[in-house]
Design goal:
Elements lengths: L1 H27 L6 H19 L2 H7 L1 H6 L1 H29 L2 H17 L11 H74 L3
Helix pairs in contact: 1-2, 1-3
Length: about 210
């Protein structure tokens, strides 16, 4: 019991130390580590600490009688339990990542961070005066809306001018058509009058 627990206890402490060192090393470079990889590192660190917390020494201590009778079987059961536990946790994390589309979200965050780092102008900071902060935030929006409305008004005015020209052209065509109708009417009336006069002359030659 002492030998088994001692050897495993040393291994556990080594895992814990390595996990903490690696997590610290990763923590020093998180600024350039993709969020997806950082999540995987966090999961790995969690599993390492979980295994350390549930070390073989504690497992054997919980099943002390069975360990004394079957130490090899106890070790085999412990290894299978840890393996299945890690697999189950990884599968659950993968399911959460897929259902929540975490990879796409984290990649988007990485892109936003990169764009923010590449941005040359200083980031916005509140001045401490709410009125000025609101004005500085909303004024560009209002100016943009004003510009858009002015452009729409100009376009509408141009459209109105075109419509007015079309109306005038239509009135001109109607007037010309009325004049043509009146001229034809007068011509027809004149022909009718001459026809009647001619008919009267033919009927009364004297």
């Amino acid at each position: 019991m002492a030998n088994a627990s001692g050897s495993n206890g040393g291994g556990s402490s080594g895992e814990v130390g390595g996990g903490e060192d690696s997590s610290l090393a990763d923590g020093s470079a998180t600024a350039h580590v993709p969020k997806v990889k950082l999540l995987d590192t966090v999961v790995d660190t969690f599993l390492q600490k979980l295994v350390s917390a549930g070390s073989y020494e504690r497992f054997a201590r919980c099943y002390k009688r069975f360990y004394k009778l079957q130490p090899e079987m106890t070790r085999l059961i412990y290894d299978q339990f840890i393996t299945q536990l890690q697999t189950s946790i990884r599968e659950e994390i993968s399911t959460i990542k897929e259902e929540g589309n975490l990879e796409a979200v984290l990649n988007s965050l990485d892109k936003i961070v990169e764009e923010a780092e590449d941005r040359k102008e200083p980031a916005w900071r509140p001045s401490g005066i709410p009125e000025d902060d609101v004005r500085s935030t909303l004024m560009p929006y209002f100016l943009q809306q004003q510009s858009s409305l002015k452009r729409l008004v100009q376009e509408q005015e141009k459209e109105n001018v075109k419509l007015a020209e079309m109306v005038l052209e239509g009135r001109k065509q109607v007037l010309e058509l009325q004049q043509q109708i009146q001229a034809r009417k007068q011509t027809w009336q004149a022909l009718s009058k001459k026809k009647r006069e001619l008919a009267t002359v033919l009927e009364d030659p004297e």
